[in-house]
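User: Show me an example of a complex going from sequences to C-alpha cells.

Assistant: Sure. Here are the input components:
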Amino acid sequence: MSASTEFANPMVWVVEGILVFFILFKILSARRGAQLFIRRIPGLTVLDEAVGRATEMGKPILYLPGLSGLGIVGLQAMAILSHVVRHAAKYGTRVVVALADALLYTVAEEVTKDAYATEGYPERFVPDDVRFLSERQFAFASGVVGIQHREQVASAFYFGDFFAESLIIAENGQMVGAIQVAGTPQTTQVPFFLVACDYTIIGDEYYAASAYLSREPTLLGSLVGQDYGKLLLIGLVLLGTVFATVSALAPDISAVPYLRKMFLDFFPRGL
Amino acid sequence: MGFLSRLFEPKHGLALLWMILAALVVGGIVIAALCALPSRYRKWVVVGVTFVAGLFYSIEFLIPRENYLTARKPLVADLSIVIGSFAVLIGITNLFQIHWKSLSRMKQGMWYNGLAFFVSFFAILTTGFLKDSVSGSNGEVFAGAFDILFTGFLTSLNAATFSLVAFYIVSAAYRSFRIRSAESALLMIAAAIVMLALVPVGALLTDWLPKTGFFSIFRIERMGYWILTSPNMAAQRAMALGIAVGSLAMGLRIWLSLEKGSFFDRQL
C-alpha cells in the first residue's frame, strides 16, 4: 500500500469502484425508464422566479461563474447559465455574464448564443453582454461591482468558484436591491453567501443543479447514484467512529486495536 | 518523449520567435480543420479527446506508485497551458471591443473606464517588454516604471479592494445576527460564543469557573473550541463528502460524454 496520497491505494480502487458502479447503474436504470425522485431544492426552484422578477422590473440579470476555470465546477456553472439564459430569452430579458477565466469565457459565449438560438431568438444575443473582466481576483471583483451599480441588476446568480471576493460581490448586490441566488463548492465561502444572498445552494446541491433543472434521465440517475455513494461514505464514517470509540472504551479487547489499525491503514489521511 | 520534451524546453531569441510562429500556424491549421469538420464528426473528436485526456489522469492516479505516465504529466500540463494561452488572446479581444465601443461612442458613465483600460494596458505592456529587452540605464528606468505600475498601482489597488471585505463583514454580520427566527437566534448565540472565545476578554468573563471538572465545560473558550471542532467541523466534513461524490459524478459524466440535457448535447 502506498503511503503517499499522490496515488491511489487499494481502498481507493474499492471505494471509487463502488461509487462509479452506483452512479453508472442508476444512470442506466433511469435511461431504461425507472422513475426517480429528487427532493425540492429551494435555491434552484427560485431561479425562474428571479428571472421573472428581472423581467417585471425591466432590468438585466447578472450571472457570475466566479473565478472558475474550464473544469468540473466551471462546466456545471455553464449548465446552470444555459438554463437561466434560455428562461430569460423567452421574455427578452438581458443576461450579463462576467468571467474571470478566458478559456471559460469562450465556452460561456457559445453557451449563451446557443441558449438564445434554442429558444428561437438568436437576434437577442448581445455579444457585449458576455464579458471577460480580469483573471486577477480583485480586479474581477471591482469590475463586477461596477456592472452591478451601472446596470442596476434586478437579479444576480453566483454559481462557481468564489473566494475572498464573494462578500464584496454579494454585499454590492444587496445594495442595488437584487434578488441573489448563490451556489459554490467552496465551503469556506458558503457562510458569506448565506448572510448576503436570498438563496444559497449548499454543498453537493451545486452538482445537482443540472439534473434538477433539466430533469434529463441520465442526470437524474447520476444524482440518485450519488446519494447511494453518500450512504456508503456515511457507513464508513460510522464504522470508523465505532472502532475509535470501542478502542478507547475497551482497549483490552485484543481484536479492537487490530481492527482499528487495519481501518486506519486502509483509509490513510488524505484519502 | 524526447522530441516532445525538447519541444517544450524554454527557448530564447530567434528560436523563440520561430516557435511562436510555428505554434500559431499549427494552431490555426488545427482550428481550421476542426471548423471544417461536419458537426457529427466534430462531436466524436471532442468525445475522443475528452476520453483520452481523462483516461490519462485516471490511470496515472490509479496505479499505486510512480509509473510511466507520471513522468509525462508535466508534458500534458504544458499542452493544456498552450491551449489556454490561445483563449487569453480571445479574452483580451473581448476587453478591447467593449472598452473601445464605450470610448469611441463616449458612453455616459463608461468612457473613462475605457480610457483607463487602454492607458493602463499599454503602459504595463510596454514597460513590461522594455524592462527585459533594453539593457543599461534605460532598462533600469523601464524596470522602475514597471515597478511603479505593478507594485505601486496594481498591488495597492488589489490590497485596497481586499480591505473592503472588512467593512462588508460588518454589514453582513448585522443582517445575519438580527434575531428573526429560532435558527438566527441559534446562529447569533453560537457566533457570540466563538467570537468571545477568541479574545482575552471572553476568557475573562468565565474565568471564575473551575479549570477542571464538569463545570469547566461552560468556560467560554472551551465552548467556543467545541463549537468550532465538533458541530462546525461535522457540517464542513458532511459538505466536503457530498461535494467529493458530486464532483466524481460530474467528472464521470463529462469523461464519458454523458452530460446531456444542459448544453453539451446541443453544442456538439
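The lines above are the inputs; the final block is the predicted structure for all two components together. The two ends of chain B are 32 Å apart (CA to CA).
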